[in-house]
Amino acid sequence: MKILVVNAGSSSLKYQLIDMENENVLAKGLCERIGDTGAITHKTADGRKYEADIPMPTHTDAFNCLVEALTSEEYGVIKSMKEISAVGHRIVQGGAIFDRSVLVDEKVIEDIYNLAELAPLHNKAHVQGIRACIECLGKDAPQVVVFDTAFHQTMPAKSFMYAIPYEMYEKYKIRRYGFHGTSHRYVSGVMTDILGKVEGTKIITCHLGNGSSISAVKDGKVIDTTMGFTPLAGVEMGTRCGDIDPAVVTYIMDKEGFTPDEMSNFMNKKCGFLGVSGFSSDGRDLEEAIANGPSDPRYERAKLAVDILIQDVKKYIGSFVAEMNGVDAIVFTAGIGENNTHIRGEVCAEMECFGIELDKELNEKTLCQSDVVKISTENSKVDVYVIPTNEELVIARDTLALINQ
Ligand code: ADP
C-alpha cells in the first residue's frame, strides 16, 4: 500500500510518497511559489531528480504537477494515482475539536476552515490542499488529516489556561494549544519503546529547529508544552522571540508605531537568532561565528543568541522535571536537536543535580545521523537520546490505520 503525505502551505506544497510495506519513501518533492511563478523539485529514492519552473496559479495546479511527477515515465515511481491508497494531510491547528487524526469529510473540512481564525496562514492553505486533492483524485479518494495540536490535547486546564479573564477563553478560545505535536508524539513513542513501557514514564522531548518547542510527556501523554496559543511562545527560535514580558509588546508597538499585524510580523520574523545576532536565523551560521572566536566581529552576538536558547531550554527542562516530579529521559530532535552538538552539550552541562550526565565524546560524534543514539553516560540517572523525528511517517501510519478501520 502506498500513502501520499501532503503538507500544504500558503504558497508551497510538500509531499512524500511512502510505501507502507516497508515504510520506505519512494519519492518526495516540493511545489513552491504557488499563486506566483511556480516551481517543482521532485526526487526519487533511486536518485532521479526533476526540477522545473511551471506556472501554478492555484493549489490544484500544484497538485496536478505532483501527480505528473509521480506518474511520469522518466521521474515517476507509480504508473497511476490509483496505486495510492490514501492521502494524509498535515494540519497545523486542530483547536480543541481534534484530539486525534480523522478521515476527511465535508464537516471536517468546514471545522478546519473555521479554525483558520486561530492559524490564519496555515489552516486556509491546508483546506486548499485538501480541495485540490479532491479535484485531482476525485471525492472518493480517502483522505486523512493529522493535527500538530492533537497530541497536546491531553494537557490539564492548569497547563493550557492563561491567567486572563475566563471570558477570553470562552469568547475567543484563547488558551495554550501547543504545536509540533506529531513530532513530540513520534519521538516520545520511540522513547517509550526503548524504556519498554508507557505507564510510569516521564519524558522531556526537545524539538529544536527553526521553530522549537519542548514537551513534558508523562505516561505517554503531554502534560505541558512550551508553545502556546500560537507557535510564537516558548524558547527562542530562528526568527521568533519566544516568551517575552507581554508589556514589551505594547511598549515596542507604541515606540515604533507598529500596527498589530506589523508587531506580529516583527515577533515572528525579526526576532530570535536573527534579531539577537543581527546576521542570521540559522544555527549553523551562528556556530561558525562562535567557532571563529572573538576576532570575528559577529562572535559576541552570535554567542549571546545561542546562549539565550541554551538558557531557555535548561529552564524548561528544570520546570518540567518539577512538574513531573522527575524525568527518565530527555530527547533531542529536529535540525538543531539532531545536529547541533554545542547546544545539546551546553543544555546538558551542569545538570548533575537532576542526575543528567552527558557522554561528551558521544555527543560530539552524534550529528547528521538517521539512527537513534543514546548520548548520556552509563552512570547518568536520566537517559539522554537523539531521535531523528519523522512527522511524515506518523501521518502515513495514521492514514493507513484510519482507512483500514
Ligand atoms: P524547521 O523547523 O524549519 O523544520 P529544521 O528542523 O530543519 O527546521 O531546523 C533548522 C535548524 O537546524 C537551523 O538552525 C540549522 O542551523 C539547524 N541544522 C540543520 N542541519 C544542521 C547540521 N547539519 N548541523 C548543525 N545544525 C543544523
Description:
- With 405 residues, the chain is an alpha/beta fold.
- The protein folds into two domains: 2-147, 2-Layer Sandwich (Nucleotidyltransferase, domain 5); 196-391, 2-Layer Sandwich (Nucleotidyltransferase, domain 5).
- The protein has 15 helices and 14 strands.
- It has helices at 59-71, 106-114, 120-137, 157-160, 166-172, 181-195, 246-256, 260-269, 272-277, 283-292, 299-324, 334-339, 341-348, 360-365, 391-403; strands at residues 2-8, 13-19, 24-32, 39-44, 49-52, 84-91, 102-103, 143-147, 202-208, 212-218, 221-225, 329-333, 373-374, 383-386.
- The strands form two sheets. An eight-stranded mixed beta sheet has the order 5-4-3-2-1-6-8-7, sandwiched between helices. Strands 11-10-9-12-14-13 form a six-stranded mixed beta sheet, sandwiched between helices.
- A hairpin with a 2-residue loop joins strand 10 and strand 11 (221-225).
- Helix 1 packs across helix 3 and helix 10 (283-292) packs across helix 11 (299-324).
- The protein is globular and about 60 Å long.
- The mean pLDDT is 96.
- The structure holds adenosine-5'-diphosphate.
- Adenosine-5'-diphosphate binds at residues 209-211, 238, 282-284, 334-336, 339-340, 367-368.
SSE inventory with pairings:
Layout: E1 2-8, E2 13-19, E3 24-32, E4 39-44, E5 49-52, H1 59-71, E6 84-91, E7 102-103, H2 106-114, H3 120-137, E8 143-147, H4 157-160, H5 166-172, H6 181-195, E9 202-208, E10 212-218, E11 221-225, H7 246-256, H8 260-269, H9 272-277, H10 283-292, H11 299-324, E12 329-333, H12 334-339, H13 341-348, H14 360-365, E13 373-374, E14 383-386, H15 391-403
Helix pairs in contact: 1-3, 10-11, 11-13
Bound molecules: adenosine-5'-diphosphate.
Adenosine-5'-diphosphate (ADP) is lined by residues 209-211, 238, 282-284, 334-336, 339-340, 367-368.
